[in-house]
């Protein structure tokens, strides 16, 4: 079946609609970052940059590091952007743009998020690294796609009961990283974590400037929830969406977090850029 022009939107130069990329522009190992400026911070460490393209918040550099071809792309903030980035990256490798049909051979991508995050356990220091072994999504993105038994229903149900989760919000869903890809990063420099992905930075992460979050008590519930020794460790805004779409599309994903804030102690990193740089070097060292 041919995908119609309003489903698969291809620009005049043959590139995919938002990312502005041609199929040959991306490697099969892809680092995602939230901040477009972080793309340069990553590609600075490449031995050679072969391509720089961008549109809106989606900046991509592809290059070579120690003989390995890697792409780094900025997603902007949030799982709504992740929906665009993961679907378009997948289209670049698994859809034939000339015939507008699905390719018979599936190409899996390795997707590694390098992002920033806030810890909710007092013993997780700022400037430390965390890999999201599990993610719990409050964003609802998974529910917009057909799937069979994806998620950890027992943990989700226990969480919903413990937090008395408001029925007006999306049902939380829980997914795991790709074990094979995660193996590359498991090390005593990086803690295993259970990451909560939120639909905002302020109210949804229980920050109060002028507006009062509706259920402030949930912050304490999030940090005290425990299921067979699994405790929620940190908050950010993309990981569950990346894990959801990677699972659905047959890609491998892990999320690496640089902890910049500790919400329990109230601290914020004094050296955010340097700490993110350390995580970038750690990640590239493991990939190449
Ligand atoms: O540093 P990045 O990758 O953007 O990640 C985190 O920082 C942003 C909020 O400041 C959100 O995108 C959150 O997930
Ligand atoms: O507290 C934080 C820090 C970074 N990113 C988030 O989403 N939350």
UniProtKB/TrEMBL annotation:
Instruction: List the source organism.
Output: Maribacter confluentis
EC primary class: transferase
Q: Look up the signal peptide feature and give its range.
A: none
Residues annotated as domain Nucleoside phosphorylase = 29-263
InterPro entries documented for this protein: Nucleoside_phosphorylase_d, Nucleoside_phosphorylase_sf
One Pfam family matching this protein: PNP_UDP_1
This protein's source sits in the domain of life called Bacteria
Check the record and name the PANTHER family matching this protein: FI09636P-RELATED, URIDINE PHOSPHORYLASE
Which SUPFAM superfamilies does the entry mention? Purine and uridine phosphorylases
Q: Which reaction does it catalyse?
A: uridine + phosphate = alpha-D-ribose 1-phosphate + uracil
State its Enzyme Commission number(s).
2.4.2.3
User: Which named protein is this?
Assistant: Uridine phosphorylase
């Amino acid at each position: 079946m041919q995908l119609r022009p309003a489903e698969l939107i291809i620009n005049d130069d043959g590139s995919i609609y938002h990312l502005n990329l041609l199929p040959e522009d991306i490697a099969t190992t892809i680092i995602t970052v939230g901040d477009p400026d972080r793309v340069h911070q990553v590609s600075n460490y490449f031995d050679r940059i072969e391509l720089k393209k961008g549109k809106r918040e989606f900046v991509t550099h592809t290059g070579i590091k120690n003989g390995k071809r890697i792409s780094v792309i900025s997603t902007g903030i949030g799982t709504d952007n992740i929906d665009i980035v993961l679907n378009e990256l997948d289209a670049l490798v698994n859809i034939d743009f000339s015939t507008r049909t699905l390719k018979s051979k599936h190409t899996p991508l390795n997707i590694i998020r390098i992002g920033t995050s806030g810890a909710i356990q007092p013993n997780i220091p700022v400037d430390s690294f965390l890999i999201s072994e599990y993610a719990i999504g409050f964003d609802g993105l998974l529910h917009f796609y057909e799937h069979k038994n994806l998620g950890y229903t027992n943990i989700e149900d226990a969480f919903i009961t413990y937090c008395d989760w408001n029925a007006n919000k999306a049902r939380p869903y829980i997914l795991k990283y790709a074990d094979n890809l995660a193996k590359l990063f498991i090390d005593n420099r990086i803690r295993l974590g259970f990451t909560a992905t939120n639909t905002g930075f302020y109210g949804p992460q229980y920050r109060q400037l002028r507006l009062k979050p509706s259920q402030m008590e949930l912050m304490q519930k999030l940090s005290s929830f425990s299921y067979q020794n699994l405790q929620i460790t940190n908050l950010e805004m993309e990981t569950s969406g990346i894990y959801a779409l990677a699972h659905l599309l047959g890609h491998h994903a892990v999320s690496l977090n640089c902890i910049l804030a500790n919400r329990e102690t109230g601290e914020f990193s004094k050296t955010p850029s340097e700490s993110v740089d350390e995580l970038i070097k750690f990640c590239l060292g493991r990939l190449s």
